[in-house]
Design a protein that fits this description.
This protein is an alpha+beta fold. The chain has 7 helices and 10 strands.
Length: 219
């Protein structure tokens, strides 16, 4: 019993840690995460099952925003515990019924390899279907953000786009983003690390300084 538990145990996912690598069959053919679109960010997301209504609305939302993701250098990669033939049939069904084209690959994860590697199976919810997980992975294949949604509530796609914008902004400018931040709004300047820097910050005319630890600027 102990040996079996050891075989199925995986290390917990950690933000800014490495995104676990895998090889998988998809609707676009076989891929290996570490080699797939190496110059792009990746959003790996899971859905409970093909041919289900909430998942259908989510796939259409991803598809309708695909140009926005591409403009940000983000590649989309879906996953569920269904066969590649089921995925293909569902993609064709979405096109036929809603005239929406699903152009990103979907992993056929029948053996739950990817689902278990990324902690998509939450057994109190279901031991045969993945919850609605979102993993934001940067071009260095570091895991930058994780969002979980329950089986019966669809995702907020404005928030997913906002999260990508914020992560890319913090990387590019060495700043932080406040609550509800949107592109074009002021960002947070990292606080001083010494008493001397705190004194200098209070006298600074480069930032909107509220107090030594709280300063903003517009990019």
């Amino acid at each position: 019993m102990q040996e079996n538990q050891t075989e199925t145990t995986t290390a917990p996912l950690q933000l800014n840690g490495p995104a676990p690598d895998f090889e998988a069959k998809t609707t676009h053919g076989a891929l290996k995460l570490s080699e797939w679109n190496p110059d792009k960010w990746v959003i790996l997301f899971s859905h409970p099952a093909d041919f289900t209504p909430v998942c259908t609305t989510e796939f259409m939302a991803f598809a309708n925003l695909q140009e926005e993701f591409e403009r940000r250098g983000v590649a989309l990669l879906g996953n569920s515990i269904d066969s590649v033939h089921s995925h293909i049939a569902w993609v064709r069904d979405i096109k036929r019924n809603f005239d929406v084209s699903i152009e990103f690959p979907i992993i056929a994860d029948l053996d739950m390899k990817v689902a278990r590697l990324y902690g998509m199976i939450h057994e109190p919810s279901s031991n045969t279907a993945a919850v609605r997980a979102v993993f934001v992975i940067d071009p260095e294949r570091k895991l930058r953000a994780i969002i979980y949604y329950p089986l019966d509530v669809g995702r907020n796609f404005d928030e997913i786009l906002r999260l990508v914008d914020a992560l890319q902004t913090t990387d590019a400018h060495n700043v932080a983003c406040p609550a509800d931040w949107r592109p074009g709004q002021p960002v947070i300047v990292p606080p001083p690390k010494t008493t001397q820097e705190a004194e200098e910050r209070m006298a600074s005319e480069d930032y909107d300084v509220t107090d030594w630890y709280f300063s903003r600027k517009t990019l």
